[in-house]
Design brief:
The protein is mostly helical and 320 residues long. It has helices at 5-22, 28-49, 61-97, 113-135, 139-149, 164-180, 185-202, 220-226, 231-234, 244-249, 274-290, 295-302, 309-316.
Length: 320
């Protein structure tokens, strides 16, 4: 079973890609939601039967509620605004300012479907990879991105614990770039569908074998290193769909067990609510990145939890 979970997820993706390509549904969003639900069901079942970390399965109601609200905000508000308003507006402005963009043959539409798909994945991931790296270097961007890194555990749903601004720059660096390159809509949607499936599986708390698959795809065993408390370990595996660019730029890291602790050193989600945690993560972690942490605020937040993320994780971490 450990060997079959990820291939099953890729089968879900393959069916979704075929549905998009063949227009089985009137709207691609229906395909994306179906793929999300199917992959989530697979990941939840795998976490229950084959947990990677037993302590990661003990999720408080408050933490799970924040993850649900974050997912709902992304799906119901942020994604539609980006796709229906922001990206079309920016694309129109770009084409008006530089009409020669439309005449460039930036996408190999005359090649096979497989080559088109691979080209689109690598092009989208190139922008996403560098934007992700910048998010770990810029104090302001890290404050925004750190909302995703705050949890001291990984499970399928907290892959959607993402600041709306973080999702915006990720989409602009990947999907918008594909549109600028005149990528056919069905290919764009196939790349988005891959992101849905990989995004769920990447955070899955299941003891699954990824041997071979982790040479190209951004699998959970690789992504756990990116969430490590140790910053030297976390500066790795920035790719979302694929680790191709990590290999090219020297940030690929692989290990069979994974880091002892995930999260942010000396920190943990306050779990005070979705909006409150967005602000706390930004204020505290951007200040720390600048080396100007506010001690009073840190002491106040620390008083609401018994131990730091690192202490709690290292004290209870068990690989099942």
């Amino acid at each position: 079973m450990r060997w079959g979970v990820f291939p099953t997820a890729l089968t879900i993706y393959t069916v979704a890609a075929a549905a998009i390509r063949s227009h089985w549904f009137p709207r691609p969003e229906l395909v994306l939601m179906s793929a999300l639900l199917a992959t989530a069901a697979l990941a939840a079942a795998a976490e229950r039967v084959l947990p990677f970390r037993l302590d990661w399965a003990r999720i408080s109601d408050e933490e799970r509620q924040i993850d649900r609200k974050s997912w709902l905000a992304l799906v119901a508000l942020v994604d539609p605004v980006l796709k229906l308003v922001i990206m079309p507006t920016l694309l129109s402005l770009a084409m008006s300012a530089a009409p020669w963009l439309g005449r460039l043959r930036l996408f190999p539409s005359d090649l096979s479907l497989l080559v088109q798909w691979l080209y689109a994945v690598l092009l989208a991931e190139l922008g996403s990879y560098w934007m992700h790296r910048f998010a770990h270097e810029s104090a302001t961007m890290w404050g925004i991105h750190s909302f995703h890194h705050n949890p001291a555990r990984l499970y399928w749903l907290n892959g959607f614990r993402v600041n709306p601004l973080n999702m915006a720059w990720h989409q602009l660096a990947s999907v918008f770039v594909l549109k600028l390159a005149s990528t056919p809509d069905d290919i764009v949607q196939m790349v988005v569908a891959l992101g849905v499936v990989i995004g769920v599986m990447q955070h899955c708390n299941a003891d699954v074998r990824y041997d071979g698959w982790n040479q190209f795809f951004g699998t959970a065993d690789l992504h756990r290193w990116h969430h490590a408390v140790d910053a030297t370990e976390a500066r790795s595996n920035f790719g979302t769909l694929t680790v191709f660019w990590d290999r090219i730029f020297g940030t690929y890291k692989h290990g069979h067990v994974g880091p002892t602790c995930v999260g942010i050193d000396g920190d943990a989600p306050a779990n005070r609510g979705y909006l409150s945690d967005l602000w706390i993560a930004y204020r505290r972690n951007s200040d720390r990145a600048r080396g100007t942490a506010i001690l009073a605020e840190t002491a106040e937040v620390s008083s609401t939890r018994p131990t730091s993320a690192a202490t709690r994780c290292c004290a209870t971490g068990v690989h099942n």
